[in-house]
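Appendix B. Chain record.
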Amino acid sequence: MAFNPAAYKAPVAKKLPVVLLLDVSGSMGGDKINTLYDCVVDMIASFVNQRMKETIIDVAIITFGSEVKLHSPCSENQPYVPVSDLQDQGISRFYADGMTPMGTALKMAKDMIEDKAFTPSNIYSPAVLLLSDGQPNDSWRTPLDDFIKSGRSAKCQRFAIPIGNDADRSVLREFTGDDNNIFFAENAADIADAFQKFTMSVSMRAASQNPNAIPKVSNAPFDNNVAQDSDDDDEYI
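Structure tokens predicted for this chain:
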């Protein structure tokens, strides 16, 4: 066999996307919204400090309150931003206002995950966190069912942080499908502890030998179709 230097490829790190669905409705005002912002900044710093050799963590932040949007510096052209870039660019402050359009946020997240241009198949299945302190005020039933039961989003690892007694814990429990992935925060002071548990869960998964070996999708490919990427000879994982 002829020697071909081009046949030797260095290992390519796989991406583990993290999607944050954050309630920034009016009831999140005061200490809760400020603590939430600090927790997201601390989470990003933790992911940067714990960089893995074979796994890259990118984060998409969707906020829902008076509007549902990708939160800057995340954008429609780059919904997932590497954690190092998030730290360097800085995350815009959160402002509490409006109602709780959770269903619309779930639909946005699902559309982003189903779009292979933004969430390709040759990555690990996303970890998704849904945080809220209230009841959804829009049509949430169908978006929730679609997210957890069909398509690529059904393969995601799902977490929830309900804040206070007004949070609809039944909806968040249904979203996760696993009580172990629910981290309760009774008040603003507890948000940091809940976020630390979420951060630890993602960090442990990123450092594991098989980051796709998560509950209910153990060893399953993120995409149903096992194929090869033109730039990578590995199978989708």
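Further analysis of this model is presented in Appendix C.
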